[in-house]
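Q: My labmate handed me this sequence with no annotations at all. I'd like to see what the chain might look like in three dimensions before we decide whether it's worth expressing. Could you predict it?
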Amino acid sequence: MILVDTGPLVALFDPADRAHDRCVETLKTIKEPLATTYPVLTEAFHLLQPASVGALRLMDFVTDGGLQVLMIDNHGLTRAFELMVQYADARMDFADASLVSSAERHGVRTIFTIDRNDFATYRMKRGHRHVAFNVIGTAPTKTGG
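A: Here is what I predict for the chain of 145 residues:
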C-alpha cells in the first residue's frame, strides 16, 4: 500500500496544477494499492472546489476503487495530535499527522506527495525506532550551490 497526500490528489485531478503532469506520470508507475485518510480527502476537496471537474473526477476515482480511505480510530486520532505537537516547529497539519499515524498503524513507509521537505522530516515510529519515509512523486532534490 502507498499512502497519498493532498498535493498529488489535487494535482492529478486539476490539469491546471503545476504538478499535474509529474503526478500523472508517477501514478502510471505505481502498482501497489493507494490509500489516504479522511483529513487528506477533505483538504483535497476544499482545494479542488466542491463542484469542479477535478472534484468530480476525484469522487469517481474513490468510488471506482482507485483510492481506499482509511478510518482513524481514537488511538490514531490521539497519535495524530501527539505528532502535531511533536512536529510543531515543522508546522505539521492534521492531514499530514493523519498520514503518519496511519502509516504507523498499517506499517506503510511509502508516501506519494509533492511535499518532500515535510515527509523527509517526519518519522514513523516502529517499536523503539523512528523510520524515515520513502517519498515518491516529488521533483528530484537539487544538490550543490
